[in-house]
Amino acid sequence: MALTLYFHPLSSFCQKALIALYENDTPFEKHLVDLMNPATRAEYQRLWPIAKMPVLRDEARGHTVPEATIVIEYLEQYHPGRARLIPSDPDLAREARLKDRIFDHYVNEPVGKIVTDKLRPAGKNDPQGVEHARGLLATAYGIIEADMSRRTWAVGDVFSMADCAAAPALFYANKLAPLGSAFPHTQAYLDRLMARPSYARALAEAEPYFRMFPG
User: Fold this and answer.
1) Confidence (pLDDT) at 212
2) Is 98 found in the same domain as 63?
3) What is the extent of the structural domain holding 172?
4) 0.90 cut: is pTM over it?
5) Of the candidates 60, 107, 123, 213, which lies 20 to 30 Å from 78 by C-alpha distance?
């Protein structure tokens, strides 16, 4: 098969790429990467030295494509399906890219900071960094709440790349900083995302690994 996704089911960024692939029923193979295994990690670093996931390998075109956002852009350009995840309207496309960045940088990254701090050895924690991450996450919640008070999806009525980013970001964020009654529109949006077949499928595949999440 031409397309191979190097991934781990628990990774939020991998789930983001999976949603895009599942939305369009794009044919691809999965290659699960265990970065805790030195041999597997070394093999993966030969493909992508940064050793972050996901990476899409397009054997037919001879391209290796890292980073979930760029994977979705690449699929849209070279392996398009029935669902356009980047709107054709340039203003909506720019908004989708902006929201994609908001969910990645101001939801997903603070969650990553909080989670990794839980995994640090005793005495090596970064309480100031975690406090900053929680403050950034709260600010992002406020932005998202205002947006979702009048929308179905991140840029309106059509599911887009921004929603691919939002689903896993909000899912894990809600485990660490519950939305609750303070952010009802964001909670309703997360509920819609979790009911979306593409994300429900990615979540079902991640479920056996949830015990590894220290949230």
Assistant:
1) 85
2) no
3) 90-196
4) yes
5) 107
